[in-house]
Amino acid sequence: MKLKQLPESTAQLTMVLIMKIIIGSDHAGYQMKEKVKAHLQKRGIEAEDVGTYSEESVDYTDPGKKVAQKVSDGVFDRGILICGTGLGMSMVANRFRGVRAGLANDLFSAIMSRRHNDSNILVIGGRLIGDTLALQLVDTWLKTPFEGGRHQRRLEKMDGV
After folding, report:
1. Catalytic residue among 27, 39, 116, 151
2. pLDDT (tens digit, 9 = 90+) per residue, 27-82?
3. Is residue 11 in a domain?
4. 118, 110 in Cβ contact below 8 A?
């Protein structure tokens, strides 16, 4: 990860942490995924897209597994998954060791998934929220730090399960 200076018009923060992100969706999240990916690219954030690449029906498990495996292996710092409700992708991603996928369809959930749970995959329900909120969720999730402390102890207990 490296720090990159962004123009004031691009972001409220003058310094932003640039990380490698992997993104995937099923057919229900395809349109939103494309908008999120473009949004990230405008901010200078690399986003590898593992599909799907159209609105043709696919099993959410396939892109969910691709994203979660790469985050679990440490190839990517964080991931974003989008399906109809976010539920299926959350269930798939959280089966992988070291993955903490947080379903967030509101700003408070996005913030708390980072602050208290150090989520490394953001899951969004593409059929539940609009594009504007989705982009706000991504920005909020990316800039929210993990608090550590007592929350770190809880994560360590989770890892022991």
Report:
1. 116
2. 999 999 999 999 999 999 989 999 999 999 999 999 999 999 999 999 999 999 99
3. no
4. no
| pTM, two decimal places | 0.88
Is the previous residue joined to 61 through a cis bond, with omega within 30 degrees of 0? no
105 falls within a domain: yes
Establish whether 116 is a catalytic residue: yes
* pLDDT value at 18 more than 80: no
Residue 4 lies in a domain: no
Q: Which helix (H) or strand (E) holds 45?
A: none
Interacting residues of 90 by C-beta distance below 8 A, sequence separation 6+: 81, 101, 102, 103, 123
Options 27, 39, 83, 151, the catalytic residue = 83
Domain total of the chain: 1
